Every structure is written in structure tokens, then in C-alpha cells.
Here is the input.
Amino acid sequence: MNYQTKYEEYRLFTETALKQAVSDMQCHTQILQESISYSLMAGGKRIRPVLFLAMLDALGIDYRKEQAFAVAIECIHTYSLIHDDLPAMDNDDFRRGKPSNHKVFGEANAILAGDGLLSYAFEVLIGECYKGVRYVNASKTLAAAAGLQGMVAGQSADLLHSGKPIGEVGEKELQMIHFHKTADLIAAPLVMAANLAEKHEEEVRAFGLSLGYLFQITDDILDETGKAEEVGKTLGKDKTEGKLTCVKVYGLEKAMRLSREMTENCLSLLRKIDADTSFLEQLVINLSNRNK
Here is the structure.
């Protein structure tokens, strides 16, 4: 099976699981149900659950039995997007080519939709823990990546350092933001699969963090060079708002060189994992060359 066919298999599996989750949520108000569904079912690449499912496959676990974790991963990611787009955060009017949640349902309902998705994700995680210590460890991996030592910390640092000139902030602050705001939640699904397989956890974590850093580097480059209709969100905002990005710290040419170096690093780390990682190798290459 070729790469695109396999990716679509993982993505459609995720879409089906998410559709069932929305049906099961049973929100008490229609506007909350609509707001959650609007963002959760807005499509997208579903890269995080795809990474989870692909690593399960590589490590010899039947991914079809682990749809609950795929749902929890995407619920947490979608909550983060809803909140990230809010005027008090990154203030973006578009997401995945559509108006952001708060532009459709208002800021208060967008906040509640994000809160609801985060809470629901933890309901799902707790529901899996009865299966044993492997599931407890995988749940802890996702919780840590999303929380005070992970994505939330990275978002806080992003806000703290926005608008500051180079010299006052630089590479150290940039890496703190990128590794926590983005890379932690890219690495977590991969590590969760390794938790369930009970092998290669450290090797998978190293790969996942490098992949997450590569993902954010390409995001920074796309904000400078991409097309809004392809990327699906407002471009040029990072520069306008003085965000700390790879392009701001290194310049565009060096950022592109760093992207190539990180691609090679990811591929090298993958080869240290005793598994069939051919799908993940192609994913790394495609991610480094993405235009959206």
C-alpha cells in the first residue's frame, strides 16, 4: 500500500471515530454542540492521530483497537486551536480555510467549546486507564504534553516574548516556545504508541520532538512564503505581531537550511527504531516539503 493510500486510511479512521465522539457528547445546549462540532469536524490533516496510528502499526499493535486515544489526541489539539485563535491569544480570524470558532459563535462560546473538548479528552483518557498500566502511561504522556510542562507552557512563553527585539530574546527562547507549544503535542502521540507497545520509548520520544520542531520550522517559513488559500489561515501575522519565529531569529535562508538539517535528523532517528518505519519516513519528507 502506498503512502497516500495509507495516510488516507488512518485519516478516515480518525474522522469516523471523531464523528462518533461528537454524537456521543450529548451537550446540554445546542450552541455548544454546534460550536464543538464546527471545529472538531472541520477536517484538516489529522497529523497527530495519524502519527499515533502509524506508530502503533510500526510497533506491531492493531491500531483499530485504539480509537479512543486517537479521539482524545484530536480533541486536545482542536481545543488548542480554538483558544489559540482567540483575540486574547493569537487573534486569528481563519482556521483550516474557514472563519475561526469565535468569529462564528462568539468568544464566550469558543472558550467553552475549547474547555469542553479538553474535559472530554480527559474523560476518554480516564476511561482507558482501566485496561492497565500501559494505558495509564499513555494517558499521562498526553496529559503532560498538553499541560503546564508542555503546550500551555509554550503558549505562555509565546505570549511573553512576542514583540520583543532580537537581542532581548533569541534562540533559547525560540526553542522553548517551539519544543513546548508545538513539538510536545507532536511527540506525545508517537510516545503513547510506544507506551502501549512497551518498547522504544526513548528513541520514539527523541524522534517525535525533532519532528515537532521540524513542523514548527516549516510553519514559520510558510507564514513568510506560503499562500493563504493553501495554508488555510491568515499569513504574515507572525511578522506583523513580532512573534518569535525561526525566520525572525535566523532569517529565511538559514531557517530553510535548518529545516533541511532537521529533516535529516528525523530520518536518522527513525532508523534507530527497530520497526518498519517506511511510512513515517515518507511522512517526514512530505512534512518538510509541505505548502499548507
Residues 171-197 form the longest helix (27 residues).
